[in-house]
Amino acid sequence: MPANPLAPSWLSVPLDANALVDTVWSQNAARSAAGELTVAGVPASALVATYGTPLYVVDEADVRARAVGIRDAFDRELTRVGSSAKIYYAGKAFLSVEIARWMRDAGLNIDVCSGGELAVALAAGIDPAKLGLHGNNKSLAEIDRAVGVGIGAIVLDSIIEIERVADAASRHGRVQPVRLRINSGVHASTHEYLATAREDQKFGIPLADAAAVVARIRAYDSLEFLGLHSHIGSQIFEADGFAEAARRLFTLHAELLATGPVPELNLGGGFGIAYTSVDQALPINELAVKLADIVADTAAEFGVPVPVIAIEPGRAIVGPSTVTLYEVGTIKDVVVSYGDDAAADAAVRKYVSIDGGMSDNIRPSLYGADYSVRIANRSSSAEPALVRVAGKHCESGDIVVHADYLPSDVTPGDLLAVPATGAYCWSMASNYNYLGRPPVIAVRDGEARLLVRRETEEDLLRRDAGLDAS
Question: What is the pTM for the complete model shown?
Answer without folding.
Answer: 0.94
